[in-house]
Amino acid sequence: MGKDKLRKFAEVATFENVVQLDAGKEYKGQWASKFFGNNMPVVLELACGKGEYTVNLAKMFPNKNFIGVDYKGNRIWRGAKTALEEGIKNVGFLRIQIETILEHFAENEISEIWITFPDPQPQESREKKRLTNPIFLERYKLILNQDGIMHLKTDNDGFYAYTLEQIDALKLTKFKETADLYKSNLVDDVLSIKTYYERKYLAVDKNINYVQWTFKK
Ligand SMILES: C[S@@+](CC[C@H](N)C(=O)[O-])C[C@H]1O[C@@H](n2cnc3c(N)ncnc32)[C@H](O)[C@@H]1O
């Protein structure tokens, strides 16, 4: 690991807005009250990387709590540091494997989940790693509350098609969908937030896919 990565890994461990691995389990069912010290809704950004959605949504919606989830501490470092420097209190980061999400969040604890530019894992043998496979969807359904909403933003057309197949197979309700967000009429301040990876794809004119759905029948 490079020096800079090591430094960020060490520093992130000292940040009060970052919780790592098993330490996150003590907040299960109590993220709002115990971690944030309030009773506001909790929104997750999965595969958050540097946490652009987490930080920017937190600024836009001070009446909600936002938790960025990723296992790469050096990436989380960026968003966590910005939140600390700017004094944004409704931001937290959880460094875990998303596979363990049910160990960290209780049933109905979450109001919205964003998945931002997840690794597409195109090989068939890697389907189990895709963050919208049926097993992950079942977990998200459990932790989302009754009116819970899912959002996916991805550059990867194959991953997008795969996700739509899963949504359709489960007969879930889609609220919004577009294979070319910035040419659609869906763009607003929230959907215009751009992540680190998104900027790279936009720089080479890649279309951005977006779908919003619910598990509520
Ligand atoms: C392509 S990056 C996208 C990062 C960020 N959302 C963006 O758009 O800039 C995918 C991220 O997902 C994280 N990731 C992938 N699989 C994961 C898993 N199972 N658990 C936790 N994080 C995961 C990686 O560490 C990486 O930061």
UniProtKB/TrEMBL annotation:
Pathway: tRNA modification; N(7)-methylguanine-tRNA biosynthesis. It comes from Sphingobacterium alimentarium. S-adenosyl-L-methionine binds at E45, D70, D119. The keyword Lyase does not apply. This is tRNA (guanine-N(7)-)-methyltransferase. PANTHER family: 3-DEOXY-D-MANNO-OCTULOSONIC-ACID TRANSFERASE/TRNA GUANINE-N 7 - -METHYLTRANSFERASE (PTHR23417), PENTACOTRIPEPTIDE-REPEAT REGION OF PRORP DOMAIN-CONTAINING PROTEIN (PTHR23417:SF14). InterPro entries: SAM-dependent_MTases_sf, tRNA_(Gua-N-7)_MeTrfase_Trmb, tRNA_methyltr_TrmB_bact. NCBIfam families: PRK00121.2-2 (NF001080), tRNA (guanosine(46)-N7)-methyltransferase TrmB (TIGR00091). Its EC number is 2.1.1.33. GO terms for cellular component: tRNA methyltransferase complex. The gene is trmB. Catalyzes the formation of N(7)-methylguanine at position 46 (m7G46) in tRNA. It holds the Pfam family Methyltransf_4.
